[in-house]
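Q: Hi! Curious about what Transport permease protein looks like structurally. Here's the sequence.
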Amino acid sequence: MSATVLRGAPRRPSAARLGLHRATIELKSFFRERDAVVFTFAMPAVILALLGSIFDGVYPGSDVTSAQYLAPSMIAAGVASTTFINLGTSIAADRDDGTLRRLRGAPMPPSAYFIGKILMALVVTVGETVVLLGIAVVAFDLSLPTDPARWLTFGWVFLLGATACALTGIAASSLARSARSAGAVMNLPYLVLAFISGVFYTPVGQLPEPLVTIGSLFPLKWMAQGFRSVFLPDSILPQEVVPSWEHGRIALVLAAWCIGGMVLCLTTFRWRGRRGR
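A: Let's find out. The predicted structure is below.
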């Protein structure tokens, strides 16, 4: 009789299924906050439109304009914004208002919460990328590649870069003492890295060497370089730090940050705020 009862008992949902359900909740919550939606999508788009209009000229030896050179780097900045900043601030807010503490006590595996957050960030990141590509194509005549190999490169750079930034953002969320301070804590390193990674400066090869060295330690520089290799011709390579797209090194650095970000999440993540809420 007991065996019959056990066979008839409903199975508990898997962590993946709960994570998908959690992602739906996260997306609904995100799109209900209209000011957050507008700021998230508008900031990289406005920066691209403004800087693309300010920068002028064509690089010697190629037909690439300054605005076209800027566009792939801004796509990388958009990916970092919607993953690193958004995840860091939203998790800090969940910790501050007690949401994390309540979820920790619920009959739900902790991995489901993170799956939901990361899936939400990936959906928003895809939307941000589409918006930036649309601006670059319509306003600055950026040509979309026709070679499938280039789109394959875009795919693995996007996935590795978004994963690395998302995991780093989850880990960095523990640095914020409260939801109010989370925005400043997450935006400051993002803006600094955007400048030293050459996102707001063209061409990258003209950055001071110390900044290039520091920027090369972080994923944003390599993600931007990977996207430039997709959308720009090889004739622009003399404007890079080295005359090569370095796809192998890009993959190695981004994969290392994915592993490092996971380690940081496992060792530094806190379910409760510092005030013990």
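A: A fun detail: The chain has one domain: 13-268.
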